[in-house]
Amino acid sequence: WPAQATLISEINALKRERDAVILAHNYMTPEIFHGVGDYVGDSLGLAKEAARSDARVIVQAGVHFMAETSKILSPDKMVLIPDLRAGCSLAASITGADVRLIKQRHPGLPVVTYVNTTADVKAETDICCTSANAVQVVEWAAREWGVDRVILIPDEFLARNVAAQTTVGIIAWKGRCEVHERFTADDIAEMRAAYPGAEILAHPECPEDVLAASDFAGSTAAMTDYVMARKPRQVVLITECSMASNIKGDVPDVNFIGPCNMCPHMKRITLENIRDCLLKLQFEVTVPEDMIEKGRLAVQRMIDLPP
Ligand code: 13P
Ligand code: SF4
């Protein structure tokens, strides 16, 4: 694709000129993921990289809550997102005011919040988690606070899936990922019938009967590691469609089959708007200072937990 190749070299030259780094989530399209991403990974990996990077500008090739997380961790850097409309159904499901009400109803319990939330929610949070470390974080919070229940919000399915793996009681919210909530146990049964040898990997934002019927549950990075390490002959990734497209090339003997769903928010990010973002230094993501202070404590606590 000559047009794509031109855009990719334009972006890579602009990155050097602007002293910018591109943090690309695993759900970016392959031309972004492979062509211009300086760091690619899951939500946890991107947050860690935002904290570590010494570039002057961070371009978040992902959704808005990820850019806010980068700003919270790197308040002195300019954080840009190529399209401000790149949102998330989970982040939109809850506000800081909702969290204050939940805390009033459950005084003394720690608030564990999925990183897929806005900065005002993070500012009300004791510690953040991602799908890669949710069980570890919940158990840490219960121990630190000396309680047997924690608040884990806003993803209803992640909360149920964590509850199935720990003795800590979970108080949940009703948020859902619009991409993963659509997978059903029937999808899995159909795949099992059509491809009896296939290994089925699902994201923890899926309903619990989907995970129960799958062979493995993990974050996007955990799914990648699983495929790279085990190289199954046939594999089904119950998640966003770009996941399979991005890792296919590295494991040519693995046959990727089965259903996937597209995240319309992630798909708002394109090579064109990344180029414009670097060219015009748009669209800057800012977070009020008081929210940065409070939110950073919650995100940093998560990052500081041992691996
Ligand atoms: P992870 O990459 O952390 O698994 O999260 C998936 C997701 O839905 C991010 O929007
Ligand atoms: Fe949000 Fe789901 Fe899209 Fe991730 S995949 S950004 S959780 S809507």
TrEMBL record:
<feature type="binding site">
    <location>
        <position position="220"/>
    </location>
    <ligand>
        <name>iminosuccinate</name>
    </ligand>
</feature>
<keyword id="KW-0408">Iron</keyword>
<dbReference type="GO" id="GO:0008987">
    <property type="term" value="F:quinolinate synthetase A activity"/>
</dbReference>
<feature type="binding site">
    <location>
        <position position="43"/>
    </location>
    <ligand>
        <name>iminosuccinate</name>
    </ligand>
</feature>
<feature type="binding site">
    <location>
        <begin position="203"/>
        <end position="205"/>
    </location>
    <ligand>
        <name>iminosuccinate</name>
    </ligand>
</feature>
<comment type="function">
    <text>Catalyzes the condensation of iminoaspartate with dihydroxyacetone phosphate to form quinolinate.</text>
</comment>
<dbReference type="InterPro" id="IPR023066">
    <property type="entry name" value="Quinolinate_synth_type2"/>
</dbReference>
<keyword id="KW-0004">4Fe-4S</keyword>
<dbReference type="GO" id="GO:0046872">
    <property type="term" value="F:metal ion binding"/>
</dbReference>
<keyword id="KW-0411">Iron-sulfur</keyword>
<keyword id="KW-0662">Pyridine nucleotide biosynthesis</keyword>
<feature type="binding site">
    <location>
        <position position="25"/>
    </location>
    <ligand>
        <name>iminosuccinate</name>
    </ligand>
</feature>
<dbReference type="GO" id="GO:0034628">
    <property type="term" value="P:'de novo' NAD+ biosynthetic process from L-aspartate"/>
</dbReference>
<feature type="binding site">
    <location>
        <position position="177"/>
    </location>
    <ligand>
        <name>[4Fe-4S] cluster</name>
    </ligand>
</feature>
<feature type="binding site">
    <location>
        <position position="131"/>
    </location>
    <ligand>
        <name>iminosuccinate</name>
    </ligand>
</feature>
<feature type="binding site">
    <location>
        <begin position="114"/>
        <end position="116"/>
    </location>
    <ligand>
        <name>iminosuccinate</name>
    </ligand>
</feature>
<comment type="pathway">
    <text>Cofactor biosynthesis; NAD(+) biosynthesis; quinolinate from iminoaspartate: step 1/1.</text>
</comment>
<keyword id="KW-0963">Cytoplasm</keyword>
<keyword id="KW-0808">Transferase</keyword>
<dbReference type="Pfam" id="PF02445">
    <property type="entry name" value="NadA"/>
</dbReference>
<feature type="binding site">
    <location>
        <position position="88"/>
    </location>
    <ligand>
        <name>[4Fe-4S] cluster</name>
    </ligand>
</feature>
<dbReference type="GO" id="GO:0051539">
    <property type="term" value="F:4 iron, 4 sulfur cluster binding"/>
</dbReference>
<feature type="binding site">
    <location>
        <position position="263"/>
    </location>
    <ligand>
        <name>[4Fe-4S] cluster</name>
    </ligand>
</feature>
<comment type="similarity">
    <text>Belongs to the quinolinate synthase family. Type 2 subfamily.</text>
</comment>
<protein>
    <recommendedName>
        <fullName>Quinolinate synthase</fullName>
        <ecNumber>2.5.1.72</ecNumber>
    </recommendedName>
</protein>
<keyword id="KW-0479">Metal-binding</keyword>
<dbReference type="InterPro" id="IPR003473">
    <property type="entry name" value="NadA"/>
</dbReference>
<dbReference type="GO" id="GO:0005829">
    <property type="term" value="C:cytosol"/>
</dbReference>
<dbReference type="InterPro" id="IPR036094">
    <property type="entry name" value="NadA_sf"/>
</dbReference>
